């Protein structure tokens, strides 16, 4: 029986992945024990439940992380707590390596990254990138910039290889939809646009339009399930340098989306105009939205020539598409912010200027 640790389990992605794992009725995840790493007592209480062992884990303490992994006999870590602070990954990889020495069995690390790092606006200079390309890792390394997400990806591939850990990188696209975790239920960008629009009583869109890759949270969680199921079925797919999987279900047309948000919010009396206005500058947008100035343009408008192939080879069949589902669910995005916006976002705390 395997032991799976989900970090960031009080978060939007981690919480939803944990719920998805806990609700498996067939397959090897059902027979596994789930462990959930969170930061506070309150989160331990919220996340604990049938089949879930919640652990309050201090990521500034290697000894504590190693003990948690060894005491709970963790074989697989699904890491969603940080895509940009590599010390967290380092501690988990070190701990998994210790676990491998004790058990003599393979250990696995699944990183949640950020897909905009592979878009031109995110500093990717090579044009089109497919997750099936054999040279992604070398290309990432060749960029030589200080992008914290890229630095973390490179670190994970190199360190896991050195330590004998099998690693995967799933760079998250723009994720939307109501999360199913027990703590934070809202994603990063669309809810932040809605909150800010409410405060300013105006919906603003970025000067440039874009069509970033996206996935509904339920489809993203399904991909984690497929990957972990393959691992547990002793059919672990290509890993380490070849372990990039791009979870792209469809694209989001930003200007059309912001216009729909404006009309949905206006219908509820939350903003003064049914049409979106254009931000006077990206700096102003970053400041009003509380997003890092350095990354706001990439977050807001990057499209990127990014192609997903490997998730589909694992059997991924996303249910949410652009036309029939996403654009029809914008009203729901507004409702979600009104109904379940109970936990302050912290995702950019590590890199805010
Ligand atoms: N959501 C998206 O659309 C999206 C898109 C691209 C990439 N990503 C990346 O995916 C990851 C997960 O995103 P998310 O939307 O699920 O974010 P989230 O809701 O903020 O979840 C992250 C969780 O990790 C915890 N955490 C953060 N720093 C930690 C630390 N130093 N030690 C222990 N726990 C820590 C947070 O704890 P608290 O709850 O106590 O703050 C939170 O529960 C992030 O790295 C994000 O950059 C997300």
From TrEMBL:
GO terms for molecular function: aldehyde dehydrogenase (NAD+) activity. Coiled coil: none annotated. Pfam families: Epimerase (PF01370). InterPro entries: Epimerase_deHydtase, NAD(P)-bd_dom_sf, NAD(P)-dependent_oxidoreduct. The lineage of its organism: Eukaryota, Fungi, Dikarya, Ascomycota, Pezizomycotina. This is NAD(P)-binding protein. GO terms for cellular component: cytoplasm. Residues 4-82 form the NAD-dependent epimerase/dehydratase domain.
